[in-house]
Task: structure prediction
Amino acid sequence: MRALSWAYLALAYAFVFLPVVVLVVFSFQDGRLPVPPLRGFTLDWYAKVLADRKLMAALVNSLLVAALSSAVALVLGFLAAHALARVRLPGSALLRGVLIAPMTVSYLIIALGLLSLFNQIGIRPSLLAAGIGHVVINLPLCFAITYAAMGDHQKNAERAARDLGAPEWKVLALVSAPMLAAPLAAAFFLSVTFSWDEFIIAFLLTRFDVTLPVEIWSMLRSGLSPATNAVGSLVFLVSVTLVILLEILVFRRSK
Amino acid sequence: MTASVSIQSVFQRYGTAVALDAVSLEIAAGEFVVLLGPSGCGKTTLLNIIGGFAEPTSGQVLIGGRDMAGVAPKDRPTTTVFQDYALFPHMSLRDNVGFGLRMRGVSRGDRAAKADAMLALVGLEGRGDRRPHELSGGQRQRVALARALAVEPDVLLLDEPLGALDLKLRRQMQDELKAIQRRVGTTFVHVTHDQEEAMAIADRIVVMNGGRVEDFGPPRQVYLQPKSLFAANFMGEVNLVPVVGGRAPFGPVPVDDGTLCLRPEAISATGSLHIGLCRVEDVAFFGTHVRAHVTPLTAPDLRLVVHLPQSLAVEVGMVLDLGAESHVVLNG
Result:
């Protein structure tokens, strides 16, 4: 019975991680095709990828879009969550629902909507447009995470801060936000990973400067190559690093 | 820094519910006043109105003669010690205590010095670098007190500050609170539902019930000469004896008609207000006194609680000749 449980666990992990393992293994392929058999070990593909100006530019673009759009989504989400948790407004429940609703809309629909809206108001497809798209998809996430973390504990501390003479923006900056540091960091890192991996919105809303997933897509169109595996492995490495950072900085500390 | 507080016919209504009903109080500068009453009596509502966390439906609050209508908590000369302490968990004790000074633009060095001095005042000398979670409940309460006093408010508001502490620590903190108030001279307005706490620390006690002030005076007066039956009952155990046509159930008494209030410890063998022979129904030894239930022989339906000296060997069935040393008669 015990052996069976372990086998099940091993299978489950294999199912989740086999594609990634295959991707990483064949990024070291000494040959032109990233398919079995493995002909030998080389770092040439990584060297090629790292020397590719367009790819590296896309990587920097991706990091910029992810960091900035996540920061904006976090600030907006935090302010909205704080307001809805502290102030009784008519239709609070409806306001909350409407803020979270974009989570249920597919990225394709959001991208199409933004595309036609941006056309109307004259925002050209660009990194800015993609960044706005990423704020749209990450704002509900940031809002939901911070809203769930707000409690009476902070409410009383905020009251004390006001009583001691703090104006509202200082209450937010010096008391509310630091007390919610862990959930805010969690929301930020999750937003960054989502933005980092996002393809459809970035694909439809960028043109000349593109993000990394879009660049990888254009690489794939010219056929399979261990170079794409190498890029994929690098993307995976960044995502893993973010998750580990999240674990170390946020979850360890809050225990 | 200290100031008087004047509350003038304040009403507070929530829909149809009346939380405060024509409350008027004059609190002198430097006075230690305790708002005492059961939960829901309006004492916390009144404290919130003084602190600016709620606006009264009607009526005026003056602090140091200045009308507080429309003045936000941060602009009032008041600070509050909250029941759950409401310390900032992400800041050191020094930064907690110095927070109010930081909001007033005091430089880092000056507020650290002031914060350390305040921590010393509350007995937490040299612990400025600790975090709130490293402290016990009583210590957190001291930090909350130091934080509220650091900005030298004219009036300090305390919202059941000792409610979360165990009994022994609470009695100890009462003494310290009183001593600190004497030293800083600030007007303290303190909310509690514990009448022993109120008597231990107050210059004057405000007894509240149902949104109204039932009684207002020094502990001795409120205890011995209460102005209402509610105040008499709330301040401690009391025997209520109806007097009609100059007669109590146990015989004629030389007092006006109404309700005769007799404290258990005021009843003794030497009391001048004669009750007569009473049979002891049950007895318990309380350490400081012997508590007994007695029934006057002339009024078998009446049961009186009496506190007799611990030296007196009282047994069930004994008959004692008792009288009251002090009394008060109330109407209603």
